[in-house]
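Why Ubiquitin-conjugating enzyme E2 26? Reviewers of the renewal asked for a concrete example.
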Amino acid sequence: MDLLRAVIIGAEGTPYHDGLFFFDVFFPASYPKGPPHVYYHSGGLRLNPNLYGCGKVCLSLLNTWSGDKNEKWIPGMSTMLQVLVSIQALILNQDPYFNEPGWAHRRGTQQGELLSQQYNEDTFILSLKTMVYSMRRPPKHFEDFVVGHFYRHGQNILVACKAYMDGAQVGCLAECGIQDVDEGSKSCSKKFRDSVAGCVNMLVKEFTVLGVNDCEKFLTVPKSLNNRVRKVSVL
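Here is what the prediction returned.
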């Protein structure tokens, strides 16, 4: 087998939750002495410092990024499973902002945490757009998987969007509800709430096509129309 296509599901507690992220893997003649070549299906979106819009995956284990000797590919020890686990745990994590080496020193500072929160908000919007992209153009041989995943998780995704529009912080949601909401400056921004609202109608349309029930109640009124309604009511 020279080619492999894999999908990673975004984990709870991250700005990638409930998303699907597809990777194509090529095993060169040097494998397993050397690492495989991994390509990310980005749809042209850059939602992580380690995942480029061109599909490049920066990971020490793949020898595409610097790292200690024990972090790089070790012949006879490193495996393809380890690559996938590393992508989910080390790349698609809770605070992807700090994956960028030039920003890692800001961890624990007020400025760093604020910038990380803003990055998570932008990332979640890109993740929603990636969901729409995946539903409209599912990777070959994963068509049924994409339909099944979003059929099962569509309601949870819309519930999360509603919570974020109400001010919940990105990544604070679990299937049982809100699990970790910070107060004060860590409440999500108005710009983010408006951006989520703009994505919800696209999601509702795609989920409805898949047969997800009760999506219409999550539809949002466009801001421009809402403003016109207010003006009419005043008159």
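The radius of gyration is 20 Å. This is the kind of structural detail the renewal will allow us to pursue systematically.
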